[in-house]
Structures are given as C-alpha cells and as structure tokens.
Amino acid sequence: MNDANHELDSAQSVLEAATELESEDPRPSSSGSASESLVFGALDKLAQATDHISERLGEKIDAVHHDFGADLKQARERMAEAQEKALERIEESSHESVAAIEKVLEDARNQQESREANLRKTIAEGLDNVVTQQERLVTKEASRLREDLDRLHEKVDRFDERFESLQTAISDLREDWQQAQESQTQARSGALDQLRESILESQQKVVSILAEGMGHFERDTCDRFEATDAKIEEGFRDHAEKNESLRSSLQKALDQSHQDQEKRFEQFQKIFEEARGILDEEREHLREIAEEVKKQHASVAEQVELERQRSEEAERQRKIERARTLNNAGVARYHSGEFARAREIFEQAIELDPNSAETFNNLGLALTELGQHDEATVAFETAAELDPDLAASYNNLGYVLFRQENFEAAVEMYKEALGRTPDSSAAHTNLGNALQKLGRTDEAVEAWTKAVEIDPQNTRAKRYLERFTGSEGPSDED
After folding, report:
1. Residue 29 burial class via C-beta count within 10 angstroms: exposed 0-12, middle 13-18, buried 19 and up
2. How far apart, in whole angstroms, are the C-alpha atoms of residue 367 and residue 365?
3. How far is Cα 7 from Cα 11, in angstroms, rounded to an integer?
4. How confident is the prediction along the chain (478 residues), in pLDDT tens digits per residue?
C-alpha cells in the first residue's frame, strides 16, 4: 500500500508540472511539446499506479479468502476431531460400564447360586441325619418302650438339642445369604451410579468441545472481516486525501473491486452457512448418539431391575419353602403334645411367610391347647382374613369360643365353617355341641345326625346321639 501511494504522488507531481508548462506556452510544436510529453508520462505513471493498486487489492482479497478458507478447513478438522473423540469416549464409557455391570451381576449370581447350593446341601444333610437318627431311635426303643420310658425321654431331649443346633446352623446360613444379597445390591447400585456419572461427564465434554470450537470459529471470522474492512477503508481514506482528482478514474475500478468483494463475501457467507448446516447436522447426529446411549442405559437398568426382581422372588420362594418345613415340624410337635415348642416353631414360620393362613391356623391350635384363648382368637381371625375360604379357621375359632362358653358366637363360627365345607362331619359335631349348650337340643340332634351321615365312623357324634336320643343315629347299612 505504501508503494502504490508513492507512485500516485509521483504521477501527480509530473501532471502538475505539465500543466504549468502548458499554461506558459500554449503554442503547438511540430515535434511535440514538452508539456505533452509530461502529460503522457504522467498518464502512463497514473495507469501504472492504478494497475499496481488493483493488483495489490486483488492480492489482499485473495489472501483474505485463502486465510478464511484455511481457518474454515481447520475449524472443520477440529470439529471432526472433537466429534470423533467424544464418540470414542462415549463408546468406551458405555462399553466399560456395561462390562462392569455384567461382571458384577455374574459374580453376584455365582455367589448366590453357590450359597444356595451349600444351603440346600446342608439342610438336606441335616434332615437326612435327623430322619436317620429318628428311625434308629424308634426301631431300637420300640421293643423296650414300657421298660425304658425314662431313657426314651432322655433320647428325645437329646434329639431336641440336636434339632435346635440344626436350627441355629440354618439361621447362620440365612444371615450369610442375606449379607451376600446386601453386597450384591450395593455392587449393583455402585455400578449404576458409575454408569450415570460416566454418561453425564461424556455429554458435558461433548457440549463443551462443540461450544469452544464454535466460539473460536466465530471470533476468528469476525476479527478477520473487521481487519479486512479496516484495511480497505484505510486505503480509501488515504487515496481520497492524497489525490481527489484520481477518484473519477479509479471509481470504476473500485466499484468493480467492491462488486467482486461482495460476490466473494456472498460466497464466504454461503460457505459459512453450509458449514453451519454441517455443524447442525453433526450436532443432531451427536444428539441421536446420546439418545441411543440413554436407551442402552435404560435397557441395562431394566435388566438390572429384572435381575433384582428374580432374586427377590427366589428369596421369597425360599422363605416360603422354609416356612412350610417349619410348619410341618410344628405340626409334628403339636401331635406329640409339645404345644409350647410347636408355638415357637409356628411363630418362626410366620416370620418367614406372614401370608400363610394355614400356619396362623396351626398357631391358633397350639395357643388354644396352652390356654391362651385371646391370642388364639387373633391367630384364627388372621387366618380367616388371609384365606376367607379356609373353613378350618372358622371351625377352630368356634372351638375357642366354645371353651370360653361363648356358645352363641361359637354357633355362628361353626355355621361359617359349614358354609365353606358343608360335608365336614367335625364341624357338624361341634355345631351340635354348641347348640346343646344353648338348650337347643333338637337342632343339636339334627347336627349330630348329619355328622354321622357324612362320617359313619364319627364316634363322638354317635355318643352324643345315644346320650340324648337313645340311638346312635344312621347305621353303616343305612
């Protein structure tokens, strides 16, 4: 720009000298006057200066265009590199998180299966030992039952101690299994938290890299446009100040240059819009990838939840099976007359399976034999709530009320039982007993008669009929 200004100054000085000579001697000469030579020389220099300025402006514009293209290419490369790095980080984080969760689930599943197998083996061995010892004791003592009754009681006590030891061992195993369940739950929770943190961190890094790239690209572009405009305006100001007379001759070139610049600016703007469109497409692509990662995360979380539900269902079934075993053991103690011990076993079974109407019914029977009628009533009522179709609970509740001499309420409970099992000979017998206590002997006889019709071997009902009617009711032949 300084060289071009210097040439314009030289051309202007030559033109001014020619003008002065032309004003002093306006006469023409056959060989050409000095003023004409000076004018033509000035015009030549002016043309050269104009061409030089046009070349310099073209070079400046080409340099700006080249720098802009290089910056745009560099911005694209940075954006692509950032996108690739972000995708790689997301994929690595997803793979690592999924692998960690799968490993935790596999380890927890293996531990659970191992502990369940050991628990089943221990229980089976303990039960086999108990059954073997019981058979040996029964076989050995059957022939000497009358002679060694005291020794039999001692052996039964030792059997109780061994059974209690087995109960203690099973309780320890159950505590170990529960600890393993808690460890498994903590491991799953830690893996899920790690997956969430990793995905959130990856998404934040992607957004930060994109924002930084866009900000750098926009700032750099604006700076270069401002610098270019400043240089062009500076050139226009210098040219106008130094040679106003040259404006008319240079206006056309400058207008053309301005048009070219506008065209190039429009091209730059078009390229910029295309670049922005590409960036928007890439951003949308990254958003789709993030959505896919979220879906995969949701799928993994769903698998973890299903595994947890299966584990809880397996634990619930194990407790139910254990509760059934305890209930059967309590029934055995009940029939052997050990009502207090039967009550303890039934309560243990209820802790494992609080929804078992049968166990609550059996607990009520044991409490009845222990004389704890209020607690027995609660147990029978709970059994009826859990299973409204369990007729035995109503029949047994009627028996408790009968022993409390609440005969009216006992009649209602026996009728409830018969409403569910009308062919229950025992319920008809109990109904007859309660009706007889109320002085409703005719109805009682009808109930006892119905009991004998259903079960001709019902000696209790026959005995009551013989006492109050002199007859045992319908015979087997009838």
Report:
1. exposed
2. 5
3. 6
4. 544 454 445 545 544 444 443 333 333 333 344 444 555 555 556 656 656 765 776 677 677 667 767 776 886 788 778 778 867 876 776 677 667 767 866 886 788 788 777 877 876 787 677 657 767 775 676 567 667 667 767 776 776 777 677 678 767 777 777 786 777 667 667 766 776 677 677 667 755 765 676 566 567 656 766 776 677 677 667 656 776 776 676 677 767 877 877 888 788 688 878 878 887 888 888 888 878 878 887 887 888 899 899 989 999 999 999 999 999 999 999 999 999 999 999 999 999 999 999 999 999 999 999 999 999 999 999 999 999 999 999 999 999 999 999 999 999 999 999 999 999 999 999 999 999 999 999 999 999 999 999 999 999 999 999 998 876 555 543 3
356 and 259 in a common domain: no
Residue at token pair 């469109």? 277
Calpha distance 288→348 (Å, rounded):
55
Residues 426 and 462 in one domain: yes
How far apart CA 432 and CA 430 sit, in angstroms, is: 5
Angle at 140 between CA 136 and CA 144, to 5 degrees: 155
Residue 293 Cα distances to 137, 202, 441, angstroms = 67, 11, 80
C-alpha 21/C-alpha 38 separation (Å) is 9
Range of the domain at 347: 343-469
Same domain, 121 and 88: yes
* CATH number where 434 lies: 1.25.40.10
- The structure tokens listed for 426 are 């025992």
Residues 369 and 319 in one domain: no
